[in-house]
Design a protein that fits this description.
6-stranded antiparallel beta sheet, mainly beta, endopeptidase fold (from Nostoc punctiforme)
Length: 282
């Protein structure tokens, strides 16, 4: 039997999800309670403490299967189309029973939500790229998001919209800080940049670079014939080609999302992560 990946498999301390009965030997099995993220950006931690490592972030409208409660924390798994959602703890106050099926998502790096359909009206909050919500009404150039306020039509797209050029969304992140576990306008890490850009284009993706290397695209054999959108993988790192020579990546050397020649990046990265493992084309 293949070893289960604890990042994406809900089991811990003698407990496992019901659907793992034939895969995990546990004392107790349980069914989840479906919840929904009700805040713009929510950290998912390894342990029920703000001081523990943040593995990723969950955005407004994301569904979350809750299996356990530990004080003010809920333990469970992000719900994703392909089942690659991360397992961990989120503050219980950021969850509620699903109140809507998202109809739209944010398609810019940050979208202001106005109190009225007027650019001069107060801004209630900002929603990050890929935040999901239900549009209940339209007023001129503004769409009313249920429970939040008005968002300009140029800042959102329908949930069903797809785009073949996911790199354009990655490029929106240029200059953002490098943040471990980040997938929002607060900052991103290398694989978070890839996941966020693909989600903005209407395609789901695993969270970590090793899973992205395993499940995304097909292998590029000729490294001299690279294209925009090719994914370059090293041990523990991934970047996106903007063209045949330029790499876009969130990295701890620059501590930002940077664009640089692939040749230059490869020379530097090889000192800590070795040679390129593979290049994948979607």
């Amino acid at each position: 039997m293949d070893k289960l990946d604890p990042r994406i498999t809900p089991f811990k301390d003698g407990f496992a999800a019901d659907h793992l009965k034939d895969k995990v030997d546990a004392k107790v099995y349980g069914a989840p309670i479906r919840q929904q993220i009700i805040m713009p950006v929510v950290p998912l931690h390894q342990r029920p403490a703000t001081t523990s490592m943040m593995d990723t972030q969950l955005l407004l409208g994301t569904e979350f299967d809750m299996y356990d409660i530990a004080g003010s924390w809920a333990w469970g798994q992000e719900v994703t189309p392909a089942g690659f959602g991360y397992v961990g703890y989120v503050p219980k106050m950021t969850l509620a029973p699903p109140a809507f099926t998202p109809s739209h998502r944010v398609c810019v790096l940050r979208a202001p939500v106005f109190a009225k359909p007027d650019l001069k009206s107060p801004i209630r909050l900002d929603l990050p790229l890929n935040a999901k919500f239900l549009v209940e009404d339209t007023d001129g150039d503004y769409l009313k998001a249920t429970g939040f306020g008005y968002i300009h039509k140029n800042h959102i797209c329908q949930q069903t919209d797809k785009d073949t050029d996911f790199v354009q969304f990655a490029e929106l992140h240029l200059g953002l800080p490098y943040v471990w576990g980040g997938i929002s306008s607060d900052g991103v890490d290398c694989s978070g940049l890839v996941q966020s850009a693909l989600r903005a284009a209407g395609q789901d993706a695993p969270r970590d670079s090793d899973l992205q290397q395993k499940y995304l695209g097909h292998e590029v054999k000729d490294y001299k014939q690279l294209r925009r959108g090719d994914l370059v993988f090293w041990l523990g790192h991934v970047g996106i080609m903007r063209d045949e020579k330029t790499l876009l990546h969130a990295n701890a050397y620059h501590m930002t999302v940077a664009s640089e020649p692939l040749e230059k990046a490869t020379e530097r990265i090889s000192l800590s992560a070795g040679s390129i493992l593979s290049i994948k084309r979607l």
